[in-house]
Amino acid sequence: MFFDGEVPRFQVVIPDFGAVEGPFQITSLEYAGSYNGEASYEISMASAGVISFVAF
């Protein structure tokens, strides 16, 4: 999705707060090395249309 510039629908769940859903484009993608087989990823997303919010 990142390399192809796609804009899929995502649901982002924020614990004890709510969920945001709508079309988002991944604008940056970072990968951090591995120590004992572990890896971490970080993404940034930009909304690409109408989004909705549902409170928990």
Secondary-structure-derived class:
mainly beta
Please report the total strand number as a whole number: 4
Q: How many domains, as an integer? A: 1
Q: In this structure, how is the largest beta sheet organized?
A: 4 strands, antiparallel
Strand percentage: over 45%
Overall mean pLDDT? 93
Could you give the order of the helices and strands? EEEE
Poorly predicted runs of 5 or more residues: none
Q: Number of helical segments?
A: 0
Which overall shape is indicated by the principal axes computed on the Cα atoms? flat
Helix content: under 10%
Q: CA-to-CA gap between the ends?
A: 29 Å
Oligomer: single chain
Radius of gyration: 14 Å
Characterization of this structure:
Helix content is 0%, strand content 68%. With 56 residues, the chain is an all-beta fold. It has one domain. Strands 1, 2, 3 and 4 form a 4-stranded antiparallel sheet that branches. A hairpin with a 2-residue loop joins strand 2 and strand 3 (38-47).
